[in-house]
From TrEMBL:
ANK repeats: 44-76, 77-109, 110-142, 143-175
Domain of life: Eukaryota
Organism: Pyrodinium bahamense
Keyword Repeat: yes
Record has Repeat as a keyword: yes
Protein name (record): ANK_REP_REGION domain-containing protein
Listed InterPro entries: Ankyrin_rpt, Ankyrin_rpt-contain_sf
Pfam families linked to this entry: Ank (PF00023), Ank_2 (PF12796)
Keyword terms: ANK repeat, Repeat
Amino acid sequence: NSRQSFGHHAGMLLVGTAAHHPRNTRVAEDLLRMEADVELHGQDGRTALLCAAEAGNIPMVECLLDAGANLEARDRRGRTPLICAACGGNELLVEFLATCGADMKAKDRQGRTPLMCAAANGKLEVVRCLCALGAELEARDNKRRTALLAAAGAGQCEVVSLLAAQGAEMDARDVLGRTVLGCAGCQGRVVRQLTQQPGKD
């Protein structure tokens, strides 16, 4: 009916606002008052909350959650708002979503948790935040990589050091049997860092 059609149209505007004007919470609030569909997926498969999380805007995220947005919504890559925030490197938003009850064990289509995504992208403060919140260090993605292996493979020296200090398993192996040093491969700085520590092969 016409009411549903209007809610759909307003929902599309809401997704667009969250994606392209994430600081404009007033527009989002107006659209929500007009019964915009807060769970509508845009053409790229993202809900307004996923867009806002990727943009790293806490007020917009809070506004959408207050309107009942699904905290565990997923985009086409299987990413939740928490995974999007972790990839973006916004530790304050990561902490906010976690305190709202976001699943820190959620995995995207590649099997990556928020911690793995942050580690591979070198988001040191997000990694630190997730570790403090109790994120699982030894979770595995589809290639059997842990956060430590992902960080090593991406050449993220500081993240490797932090995860090692947090007690990450240094002898973990991926699906190809590679340890952290093997995953580091041609990442010279990581290799040098690891070989300075005894027993890491």
